[in-house]
Design a protein that fits this description.
Helix content is about 35%, strand content about 20%. A hairpin with a 2-residue loop joins strand 19 (about 530-535) and strand 20. It has 19 helices and 21 strands. The chain has helices at about 5-20, 40-50, 55-70, 110, 130-140, 145-160, 165-175, 180-185, 200-215, 215-220, 225-235, 240-245, 275-285, 295-315, 330, 335-345, 465-475, 480-485, 510-515, and strands at about 30, 35, 80-85, 90-95, 160-165, 200, 250, 255-260, 260-265, 365-375, 380-385, 395, 400, 445, 455-460, 490, 500-505, 520-525, 530-535, 540-545, 550-555. The structure holds 6-diazenyl-5-OXO-L-norleucine.
């Protein structure tokens, strides 16, 4: 079939899906810089900073702080994250500001805890937050504007208030009995706001001001630090002032690979995201992916098989790279990729044991991703998280900070899957000062001739990896524009549990064909949320996933 006919077919198919999923915004266009985030006020904060002469780093920090204010179910100063940065000349950096386990943590602390939810709710769930220090470090090393200019939009939003959008209203509603306490902690009012209501976060405004004027020190010393530690300990936690004072972000060597000639710069451990992404892309590279196959059972099966191997490797080997040796070279080697390719059987899938030794395996929630590309070609992909929706539910009351429950990303209890159904090995055990394994996959791709960039990442637990992967394939192989690439249905397989997840709108024929191959298929109506920018420094388009109501903002 003629290539153009194929592309028209896939475009038509995509538009049908987009229609079914709800209004997908058209891709935003700009010749002067772009920010795509989970919230239009976050994207606007970043784009305003670009328009004021800031670079991609200034913009991403402004947007991250702003989204932390307006989207408190998913991020904020109580969390942590990763940034992948590509300078206009092509030099890449990674900053890891992931939470760490408090110094008094022990490997069996959750086995000994009487509450089975101790790694998710309450003080023991809280890891040492890295978000504030990480964003300040990012800005001080690579930003161009003053810190005050970069923090101003978030301070203004927190102080003057903002309108609650449907995603936050829904998250509060889903919190059920816990909602009044969340409303009190966030907005100083026990009335739970609805979509369209105007709310303020005045204590948080003062906290961000203090963060700005002290260049971050206020978070680790003094009243804000005391407030955090007192609240966490009162809720049964073990965090200390010393933990806050000794926390530091880490430079990591970016994980770099190639896919169909594109350079892929992505997140190394303590995220599993980059490694899983690169292994699966490597496996797919031997197959010509045709745009007309974009939603076929054969394509989903091929993806699922590669994911089952890569997620089994994740569970077996991955954890904090400063504590365990992860055989990354081996996992990403040509031999490993070839072995996975040769194992592929188009006519069937296998039982879980086939993909990995279940080594003592010993819904969207609290994350947000921001993609930025500026007019000089500097790109930043930043994903930050407090983990699950509204995380530990522990507030530092005077400073308005909601604390993470990132400790659940460790293997808290051997053999018990975490909130996202993920299993792991001793490599991801709790240890004092350790970083829990993550799925966050901020990624930047550079086209074979060096002229184009794709800046991409997602929120959604392990779905982050599969969603980022499929968005990349949608652009590189299926030639979709950013709006289609983030909107069309997706699939996901994480080896354990042995389920192939597909979007609710997937055709029943596709599901039946997958079942015939031996997959147990489960439909889901909300996977994850992808933010993607594609283009050249002076001609770019970007899109936010319609599933979470985000909106990109281009510099006019
Ligand atoms: O780091 C991780 O992998 C998880 N804490 C991410 C959680 C997440 O994406 C929640 N969903 N939006």
């Amino acid at each position: 079939m003629d290539m153009r006919v194929k592309q028209r077919r896939v475009r038509l198919l995509s538009l049908v899906f987009v229609f079914l999923l709800g209004a997908a915004p058209p891709p935003e266009q700009s010749s002067a810089g772009m920010v795509a985030s989970d919230h239009q006020l976050g994207s606007k904060a970043g784009a305003d900073v670009l328009a004021a002469g800031g670079n991609a780093v200034d913009a991403v920090v402004a947007a991250a702080l702003a989204v932390g204010v307006v989207q408190p179910a998913g991020s904020g100063l109580g969390g942590g994250g990763f940034a992948v940065l590509l300078k206009s000349g092509g030099e890449a950096h990674v900053l890891d500001f992931r939470e760490v386990a408090p110094s008094a943590s022990t490997q069996d602390m959750y086995q000994r805890a009487s509450d089975p939810k101790a790694s998710r709710i309450g003080g023991l769930a809280v890891g040492v937050p890295g978000e504030g220090i990480g964003l300040i470090e990012l800005h001080s090393r690579w930003g161009r504007l003053s810190l005050d200019e970069v923090t101003a939009p978030a301070i203004e939003l927190a102080r003057d208030g903002f309108v609650v959008e449907p995603h936050l209203a829904k998250a509060l509603k889903n919190a059920g009995e816990g909602a009044p306490a969340l409303a009190q902690g966030l907005f100083g009012s026990s009335r739970v706001p609805k979509a369209g209501d105007h709310v303020r976060r005045t204590r948080l405004a003062k906290t961000i001001e203090a963060l700005s004027s002290s260049a971050g020190k206020a978070l680790v010393n003094g009243t804000i630090a005391n407030d955090i530690v007192t609240a966490v300990r009162a809720a049964g936690g073990i965090l200390t002032l010393e933990d806050l004072a000794t926390y530091s972000p880490k430079d990591r060597a970016p994980l770099v690979g190639t896919y169909r000639g594109w350079r892929v710069v992505t997140m190394p451990p303590p995220s599993s995201g980059g490694a899983v992404l690169l292994q699966v892309l490597g496996v797919l590279e031997s197959t010509d992916l045709n745009s007309e196959d974009a939603h076929s059972a054969a394509y989903y099966h091929r993806l699922a098989e590669a994911m089952k191997h890569a997620f089994a490797d994740r569970a077996r080997w991955m954890g904090d790279p400063d504590r365990v040796d992860i055989p990354l070279d081996q996992l990403l080697s040509a031999q490993r990729v070839l072995a996975v390719q040769q194992d592929f059987d188009p006519s069937r899938t296998y039982d879980s044991d086939h993909y990995g030794i279940p080594v003592d395996p010993g819904s969207d929630g609290g994350t947000q991703h921001i993609s930025v590309l500026d007019a000089d070609g500097m790109a930043v992909a930043l994903t930050t998280t407090i983990n699950t929706s509204f995380a530990s539910r522990v507030f530092a009351p005077k400073s308005g900070i909601l604390l993470n429950n990132e400790m659940d990303d460790f293997v808290a209890r051997p053999g018990v899957p975490n909130h996202y159904g993920l299993v792991g090995s001793e490599a991801n055990a709790v240890a004092p000062g350790a970083r829990p394994l993550s799925s966050m996959s901020p990624t930047i791709l550079v086209s074979p001739d060096g002229s184009e960039r794709i800046v991409v990442g997602a929120s959604g637990g392990p779905f982050i990896i599969s969603s980022t992967l499929q968005a990349i394939i949608n652009v590189v192989d299926f030639k979709m524009d950013p709006a289609e690439a983030v909107s069309v249905p997706r699939m996901h397989h994480q080896w354990a549990p042995d389920l192939l997840f597909v979007d609710t709108h997937t055709s029943p024929d596709t599901i039946a064909a997958l079942e015939l191959l031996g997959h147990t298929v489960k439909t889901m109506d909300f996977f994850s949320s992808v933010q993607l920018i594609h283009g050249e420094p002076n001609r770019m388009s970007g899109a936010s996933d319609p599933r979470k109501g985000g909106w990109p903002a281009g510099v006019r």
